Amino acid sequence: MDASKPLKYAPHERYCQEYIIDLVAKDAYIRADYKARGHAAEVNASNLLKRPKVRARVDYLLAEKAKRTGITADRVVKEIACIAFFDPAQVFDDEGRLLTLTKIPESARRAIAGIKIKRLPSKGQDAEPEELVEIKLAPKSPSHDQLMKHVGGYKEDNKQKSLLLPSDEELERIRGTMATQW
Could you write out the DSSP letters of every residue in 56-120? Predict the structure, then answer.
């Protein structure tokens, strides 16, 4: 099967095209003019994605979309890492003055969510007007969280939590011990 060619069954092809828009199977199913709604649409959409020809076509279309847009999982992870590991010292020179935007390293610029420049009135005739520059940074905590999920950092934590929780048998034993003490 050649996944680069449209599927012969038009509703399946339409579903694939709709699915790559937002990767929401149920919504793609409805937009592709299938009649089922609600839970039935979820189930049918999920089943459709499990069909080898549909899955292969979706994978092909997603790969083509990634090529066209230049957006890949690796690129997104690198972008998140720029925010997560941003060092504010990268935006200042050795004397503590803010660097011009072009002198700030690209990785640091990626962590900047916004810049406001406020021109203040000059203090006297010969004085130059001052500028107040406010830099808003992207929040680090969500980036750390996203990276931890990406690298599986929470899996170990989840294992530890499950080891700390008592089993059902142990809970029954504890309840029994507590009941006899009271």
Answer: HHHHHHHHHHHHHH---HHHHHHHHHHHHT--GGGGB-TTSPBPPGGGS-HHHHTTEEEEEEEEE
Nearest to 12 by CA among 44, 48, 46: 48
Residue range 83-92: mean pLDDT, rounded? 94
Cα–Cα separations (whole angstroms), residue 108 to 112, 135, 145, 165, 181: 7, 12, 19, 42, 61
Q: Which domains does the chain have, with CATH numbers?
A: 10-71 (1.10.10), 80-141 (no CATH), 152-181 (no CATH)
Q: How many CB atoms lie within 10 A of CB 54?
A: 20
Contact status, residue 104 vs residue 92, Cβ threshold 8 Å: no
The answer to whether the CB of 36 falls within 8 A of the CB of 29 is: yes
Q: 122 is written with which tokens?
A: 């000059």
Q: Is the pTM of this model over 0.70?
A: no
In the block, which residue shows the tokens 């994605």? 49
The pLDDT of 24-33, averaged and rounded, is 94
